[in-house]
Amino acid sequence: MLWSRSLFLRWSLCAAFAALAALAPPASADTLPEIFARIDKAATTFRGFKADIAKVSHLDAINEDTVDTGTIAVRRAKPQELDMLVDFKLPDAKIVSLSGKHADVYYPKINSVDEYDLSREYKSMAQQFLLLGFGTSSSELKSAYTVSLGGSETIAGQKTTRLVLLPKDKDLAKQYPKFELWISDETGIAVQQKVYETGGDYEVATYTNMKLMNVPESDVKLQIPRDAVRNRPGHDR
Fold first, then answer.
1. Considering the domain boundaries, does residue 233 fall inside one?
2. Is 196 a domain residue?
3. Domain at 103, CATH number
4. Any residues with CB less than 8 A from the CB of 170 and at least 6 apart, and which?
5. Quick check: 11 and 175 in contact, CB under 8 A?
6. Which of 90, 108, 163, 185 has its CA 20 to 30 A from that of 140?
7. Per-residue pLDDT at 236 exceeds 60
8. For 159-196, what is each residue's pLDDT tens digit?
9. Those residues with Cβ within 8 angstroms of residue 221's Cβ, 6 or more apart along the chain or in another chain
10. pTM of this prediction?
């Protein structure tokens, strides 16, 4: 399946940005300069969070949506260090782990894990996506993306302001021409993000019950049985 290979990478590398890029105390930021100020403040205060997640994957060719639900935990012990664990429960169990330059997807039902080296086959994509958050300043963000306001919308019962990001990198834009973030007007937290793929496919991740906290290292570590089958997509085929 597409998700079981590289599809999860585009989401896992930028998904947490939806919850991190706008983290700040409540504010009524109606202009880009105000939002950029909140992004800069978030870069110095964020340490981690836990939340419920619902991810919708849309396949335009057959006009079909797949919904994955579960929980997400993100930990930033240091400015340049990031660990993330997404535990999808339904409809099929899978656990996505991101730590430094490594990413893994574990499938409990078949006791198999796909391992990815982000410094190799996905280096370019990883660099672009990681630039979006986790301590990134607004100036760095603007250097890589053209950012504009998309208007006010209500998401999961919250009033939000939508941001539209267009990649300046031509290679990235060929695959993912646009990103959108919905930032809560009340809490200053992004409650939803959307990743567009060339051809009409897209993914929407919505975060609820978010709790900002110092997440312990044990909560973002992927624990798998020793006898799990290990695969390296792109290398063993």
1. no
2. yes
3. 2.50.20.10
4. none
5. no
6. 185
7. no
8. 887 889 899 989 889 988 998 888 777 665 678 888 89
9. 83, 85, 97
10. 0.80
The pLDDT-based confidence of 218 (bands split at 50, 70, 90) is: very high
Range of the structural domain that residue 131 is part of? 3-227
Counted domains in the chain: 1
Give per-residue pLDDT as tens, 53-88: 999 999 999 999 999 999 999 888 776 677 889 999
* Residue 235 belongs to some domain of the structure: no
User: Cα–Cα distance between 89 and 109 in angstroms, integer?
Assistant: 11
Task: Enumerate the β-bridge partners of residue 182.
Answer: 162, 192
47 is written with which tokens?
A: 């340490």
